[in-house]
Amino acid sequence: MRRTSLLLVFGFILTFTQAQVDTGAEEETGGEDDHVELFTTPTTKMGAATSDFGYNLFRALASREAATNVFLAPLSVSAALTQLSMGGSEQAERQLHRALRYHTLQDPQLHRTLKDLLASVKTAGKGLSLAARLCLTRRIRLKQEFFDLVEQQYGVRPKTLQGGAKDMKEVNDWVSQETSNNVQRFLAKPLPRNSFIHTVSAAHFTGKWTTRFGTDDQMMNFQLDGGTPVRVPMMQQVNYPMKLGVDSDLGCTIAQISMQDDVSMFVFLPNDVTSNLTLMEDSLTAEFVQDLSMTLLPAQVTLTLPKMKFSYSTDLQPLLGDLGLTDWLENPDLEKISSQVTKLSTVNHKVVMETVPEGNQYPSPSSTPGHLTYRVDRPFIYLIRDDPSGALLFIGRVVNPKDLRM
């Protein structure tokens, strides 16, 4: 487990705008304790594996798209690539499972466990919808047994591509249906006719807070690295209940904000205005975040967060080499899909997310605002996590909220 040194704060002002902590009581947590097993059930172990895959993929994406907004919903990518792994030889499946972090599980019911995890995080109250599917070209002779196997395990049959605009419409219509019409135009252009296999992964998330914010958005400054501040809509609320801690090693303050139906948002806010968040990105693991959930301390703060509403799409296939799949990409050995040589052409991914001020509880009615302030007014990293399973649902780096687009 990563050793954490969290400076936990009580009874004094946290002025994050200057990224300084006033003098006050502090407590060091962590140390050279004996290793404690944090994930003890098949579901939480699967949640940890899919999360670690997601953190690795996010690091690769963040490195490729330096100093820009980037977002990812890793569970949908895991689901699509897991379906693909069912078409490989034993060695090819082992290679892909290692990248997906399944080699840590030793779970003979891996597909059932993943299916159960997907079902648990898609319950209505969590605000998450996912879509994951394979699309295969007709230019190779396909084995129908593979189609039957994937459909039996995951309830979705791989799509055979006919070629042209009709495929694009059918894929877009299917993604829209799976996400309750929230992810539109998944494909902006037809898939190449000379391609082989494509994965489709999409997600929509509507943030539903446990404690509501004030209903009136306020236009406030968001500091940019080396640039003029931009005015963006912010949500703000005094006496907001959350959990806080300062990690002096990472140079940031970490918040855990409760959302409805056992979901949390973690925010990693650097002490300085910088778009280089590599140190925080590199620290992220399933164990570290689980440790944070048990270590951060409750506080009531004046909380200010950007109001976010955006979509983001990309092809993740070029990043798979960074996850140890360079050899697999050259020779995936998908013998259960076709006896002909075939390769993975694209890993298309699109996410849509929205946060709104509404919640099902009101903050403390105290007329006197507390002294703690958490103002997210500069580049930051956030993640959305399912608390019971520990599964990473969404992760993003926000460098400039003004650039977020639907």
TrEMBL record:
<dbReference type="InterPro" id="IPR036186">
    <property type="entry name" value="Serpin_sf"/>
</dbReference>
<dbReference type="GO" id="GO:0004867">
    <property type="term" value="F:serine-type endopeptidase inhibitor activity"/>
</dbReference>
<dbReference type="Pfam" id="PF00079">
    <property type="entry name" value="Serpin"/>
</dbReference>
<dbReference type="InterPro" id="IPR023796">
    <property type="entry name" value="Serpin_dom"/>
</dbReference>
<dbReference type="GO" id="GO:0016525">
    <property type="term" value="P:negative regulation of angiogenesis"/>
</dbReference>
<dbReference type="InterPro" id="IPR023795">
    <property type="entry name" value="Serpin_CS"/>
</dbReference>
<feature type="domain" description="Serpin">
    <location>
        <begin position="55"/>
        <end position="401"/>
    </location>
</feature>
<keyword id="KW-0732">Signal</keyword>
<dbReference type="InterPro" id="IPR000215">
    <property type="entry name" value="Serpin_fam"/>
</dbReference>
<dbReference type="GO" id="GO:0005615">
    <property type="term" value="C:extracellular space"/>
</dbReference>
<dbReference type="InterPro" id="IPR042178">
    <property type="entry name" value="Serpin_sf_1"/>
</dbReference>
<feature type="signal peptide">
    <location>
        <begin position="1"/>
        <end position="19"/>
    </location>
</feature>
<comment type="similarity">
    <text>Belongs to the serpin family.</text>
</comment>
<dbReference type="InterPro" id="IPR042185">
    <property type="entry name" value="Serpin_sf_2"/>
</dbReference>
<protein>
    <recommendedName>
        <fullName>Serpin domain-containing protein</fullName>
    </recommendedName>
</protein>
